[in-house]
Structures are given as structure tokens and as C-alpha cells.
Amino acid sequence: MSQPSNQLTISARNAGQVELDKYCPRCCWYLLHNKRMPFQMGMPGIMFYLERFQKAFILDHFTESEPFAESFGMVSKCTGPVEFPFSSSFLHQETGVMVTARPDMMLRNPDGSICLLDLKTSRPDGGGKCFLPQYAIQLIGYSWVTEKNGVGKVGSAGLVYCSVDIAEFMKDPLGFMVNQGFYVPFEFITHEVTLDYPASSSA
Questions:
Q1: Cα 111–116–118 angle (5° rounding)?
Q2: H or E element that contains 106
Q3: What is the pTM of this model?
Q4: Is-contact 162 126, C-beta < 8 A?
Q5: Phi, psi of 186 (to 5 degrees)
Q6: Beta strands 154-164; 186-193: pairing state
Q7: Which domains, ranges and CATH numbers included, belong to the chain?
Q8: 76: phi > 0 → left, psi -120 to 50 → alpha, else beta; which?
Q9: How far apart are CA 123 and CA 167, in angstroms?
Q10: 2-53 pLDDT, tens per residue?
């Protein structure tokens, strides 16, 4: 069924902006109507590769039967990947707003429920820390849309940060040298989000 031309639609990620300390209603209005803020810079290409690295690294643990370290938190007990649609949406009846979602990854929890993940190419204690409230609403929204579309029950959700381990690299830069350059060590840090659906509805 096609959506009406005047249907108000918002992504779960953008909806989470209201939780930011620097939230600006005018900026949010421009973002929703123009889709792209003035003078917005594109993301460096290496960031897209890094997300692919994250996905490959996590999924290979299941194909190669390599156990996750306990430091992977909620991910460490997952049993395998879950197939899901690249993009989905669902109408929030109380507000009449169509909520859209594009999760990065879904894994299977031991109890059969879904572990929904959003992959971040930053450090949780760095410049991205101020965005945690927005990311929480984003994941709650993704989980709500996922369940409403019948993909499955979402039992847990969280962020998986992947960033360069600068301290480890600086100990011995030449130790990471290869024939045509060098490689860098990465570290993964997970952050679980409480699935509080009433809180997201009032955000």
C-alpha cells in the first residue's frame, strides 16, 4: 500500500535528536525537509570500509566457530546472524508518524530473541559520547519497527564501537609494518541500551 503524499515520516535516528543537549528545533526542521544540512561534509571513505570490517569480523566468529571474548558483552553469547530487511517502517498509530529503521546488524540471542546492533566507527568516550542519548532512542525505534514488522522479538540492543587502538600502535609503530605499508590494531567496545519503549514514545 502506497503512503499518502503528506505522510509525516521520520527515521528513528533523527527522532532521537530531541534527546541531545544541543537539540535545535529549527535545525531539526531543516534536516527533515532538506535531508542534508548546508555545508555538510561527506564521510571519509575509510569509515565505510571500517563498518564493513566490523561486520566481517563479527560474522566470521560464527562461520569459523571462534568464541567471542567476554569483553564483547551482549554480543559474546549470540549464536548466529539473523536475516532482516535492509530498510523497514511502521506507522505509529498514536501520533500518525511513519517511523523508518535501517539497523546495521541483527544476531540471535541464546533464548531465540534478537540482539539488534548499530555499528559505530568512533570511541564511546570521545567526541561521540554526547550522542549516546540519541543513539539510545535510535535503537529503541529500530527495535520497535523490527518487532512490528514481524521479524522477531528483540531481546537486547546496543552499540558496537570500533576504533583504532592508538596507544597500542604508538608502542611500536614499525611492529605493524607490512610489505607495502602498515596495518593498525582496532578495539571493539559494546554499549547495551535498555529497551524502554514508553520513553521513546515520549521523546
A1: 155
A2: strand 105-108
A3: 0.85
A4: no
A5: -115, 155
A6: antiparallel
A7: 9-202 (3.90.320)
A8: alpha
A9: 13
A10: 555 678 888 998 889 888 888 888 887 777 777 665 656 666 677 778 888 8
